[in-house]
Structure to design on (587 residues):
């Protein structure tokens, strides 16, 4: 087991940067030696020669940009990693997001054939570079520098780039405040809103440490240790949100079940759109006295809401983070995930619907094991309902719902209200499984 | 969906049979706790067959074994290890070791005796459904 050196770990695994701009560069390796050199330049501690990878080491003042990197299996192969090393990566990462699409519900309109990144019909990406910036000028100036470096010796080809911008008030396009709930990770400095759940073992998010299932074992670490330890995995997702369809559904459905639009929106998610959880404030989003910010994530569904009268069992948040809930397999405290996401597209204006502009979320779901965390959440908790006794009912916000089958239950003391006939509100437009190497690993790859 | 697991394994020797009969009562509380934590196993039983030369593990459970294999390994790993110490057919131990998890899945498929007939009075109900119904839980 390695020492836990924060400066060895990519920063976005352990903290949210809360910067308003992000640009994702999707890159392909063109010249292997040049690409290795590029990786080395990102961790050579020479800011003059190249922007540097942001690590989890504490900073005294917030930088004006942050930079992180992910590598796909194809990318590692292209860098000529040994067969032994390549074969030591987990099977779902080796297979890649397109091959695993059925498992996570990326079917129909969301199928890889339609993706703009990572699909069968788009060129194979090798690297994903994440550039976060405090303002647009920094974003553009760092972009220009990076593009010069990509081009050096014809090292890398930029296949595409994808921009995200924070919306006012930290909202996502469905109108909810996002990013409230993140796991607290053992031995990592926590900068998140506190949470009543057990601290997640380090190994849930960093390779080389014990995981949630054991005090002894952890997820398998890719070989050699120099490459694997302190790394992590992420699913990068381009998720189109059908904002207009969602708002229309809320407006049309709420009156039919005698509920306000905002109450229905809260029941679907588990929080009011302003972030106040239903369990703490079931009747309105502005309780008196108000709920302090640090309390917004500090609650459980059991024992106070076993029946889902406050927050439905099928609500998006309760499914994807069941906390103390009784679930199939054992514990709802497991399968935690770090979510880093940024909206793309302009704020939806309800007075001008049908504007033809695509909106969504550039999501990054970080975990020590894609199969046990990200894929498990997508397949078992989001796109099936058996795990909590909601057979055949999928997540109402992000599930792969079809109008002829979709169903959502809103229980209350007076009886259960049933909502049916809603469609899929989130469409996958791209997906990439990435390895997030440590700085040690980047140096190793640079010197292969 | 309800599934079955019927592992029929050869006991190494009469001494191993004796060891297993001694072991089972000692493991009972651990197994009870594990099954009640897992919430997916309807019934589980261990029986000896063929003049105590074979041991069978027979269960009915919800979903796919591989979905919850990590949870099985966490909660029942030591029990499986203890059992497999005494059987001729055994996967690499400990089953809880992530290096051995896939081999454990493969083993459970390989030695799962195929079912000639299966009946369930409630094929669409899961353990959680039944427990909820028993508690009168709504929704």
């Amino acid at each position: 087991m390695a020492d836990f050196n924060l400066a060895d770990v990519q920063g976005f695994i352990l903290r949210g940067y809360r910067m308003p701009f992000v640009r994702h560069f999707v890159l392909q390796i063109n010249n292997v030696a040049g690409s290795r050199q590029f990786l080395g330049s990102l961790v050579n501690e020479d800011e003059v020669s190249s922007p540097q990878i942001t690590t989890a080491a504490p900073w005294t003042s917030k930088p004006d940009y942050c930079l992180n990197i992910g590598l796909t299996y194809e990318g590692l192969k292209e860098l000529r990693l040994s067969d032994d090393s390549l074969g030591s990566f987990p099977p779902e990462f080796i297979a890649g997001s397109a091959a695993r699409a059925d498992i996570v519900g990326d079917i129909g309109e969301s199928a890889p054939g339609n993706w703009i990144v990572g699909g069968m019909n788009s060129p194979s990406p090798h690297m994903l570079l994440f550039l976060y910036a405090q303002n647009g000028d920094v974003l553009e100036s760092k972009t220009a520098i990076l593009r010069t470096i990509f081009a050096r010796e014809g090292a890398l080809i930029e296949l595409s780039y994808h921009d995200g911008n924070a919306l006012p008030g930290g909202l996502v396009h469905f109108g909810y405040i996002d990013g409230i709930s993140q796991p607290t990770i053992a031995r990592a400095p926590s900068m998140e809103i506190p949470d009543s759940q057990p601290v997640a073992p380090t190994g849930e998010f960093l390779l080389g440490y014990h995981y949630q299932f054991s005090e002894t074992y952890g997820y398998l670490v890719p070989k050699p240790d120099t490459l694997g330890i302190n790394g992590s995995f992420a699913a990068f997702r381009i998720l189109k949100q059908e904002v207009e369809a969602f708002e229309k559904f809320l407006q049309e459905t709420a009156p039919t079940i005698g509920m306000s639009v905002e109450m229905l929106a809260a029941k679907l998610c588990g929080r009011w759109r302003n972030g106040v959880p239903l369990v703490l404030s079931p009747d309105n989003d502005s309780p008196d006295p108000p709920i302090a910010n640090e309390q917004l994530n500090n609650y459980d569904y059991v024992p106070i809401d076993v029946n889902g009268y406050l927050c439905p069992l099928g609500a998006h948040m309760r499914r994807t983070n069941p906390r103390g809930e009784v679930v199939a397999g054992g514990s709802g405290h497991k399968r935690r995930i770090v979510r880093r996401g940024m909206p793309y597209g302009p704020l939806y204006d309800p007075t001008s619907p049908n504007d033809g502009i695509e909106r969504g979320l550039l999501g990054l779901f970080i975990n020590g094991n894609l199969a046990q965390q990200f894929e498990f959440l997508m397949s078992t908790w989001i796109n099936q309902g058996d795990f909590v006794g909601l057979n055949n009912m999928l997540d109402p916000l992000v599930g792969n719902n079809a109008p002829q089958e979709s169903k959502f239950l809103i229980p209350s003391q007076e009886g259960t209200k049933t909502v049916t006939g809603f469609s899929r509100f989130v469409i996958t437009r791209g997906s990439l499984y990435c390895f997030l190497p440590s700085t040690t690993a980047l140096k190793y790859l640079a010197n292969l | 969906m309800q599934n079955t697991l019927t592992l029929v394994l050869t006991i190494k020797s009469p001494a191993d049979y004796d060891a297993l009969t001694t072991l089972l009562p000692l493991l009972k509380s651990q197994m009870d706790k594990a099954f009640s934590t897992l919430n997916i196993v309807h019934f589980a039983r261990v029986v000896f067959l063929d003049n105590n030369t074979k041991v069978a593990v027979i269960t009915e459970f919800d979903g796919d074994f591989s979905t919850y294999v990590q949870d099985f390994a966490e909660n029942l790993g030591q029990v499986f290890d203890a059992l497999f110490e005494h059987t001729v057919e055994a996967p690499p131990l400990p089953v809880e070791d992530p290096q051995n998890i896939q081999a454990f899945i493969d083993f459970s498929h390989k030695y799962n005796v195929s079912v000639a007939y299966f009946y369930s009075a409630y094929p669409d109900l899961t353990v959680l459904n039944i427990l909820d119904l028993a508690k009168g839980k709504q929704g």
User: Anything to note?
Assistant: Chain A touches chain B through 31 residues (CB under 8 Å). Chain A is about 25% helix and 20% strand. The longest strand of chain A covers residues 426-436.
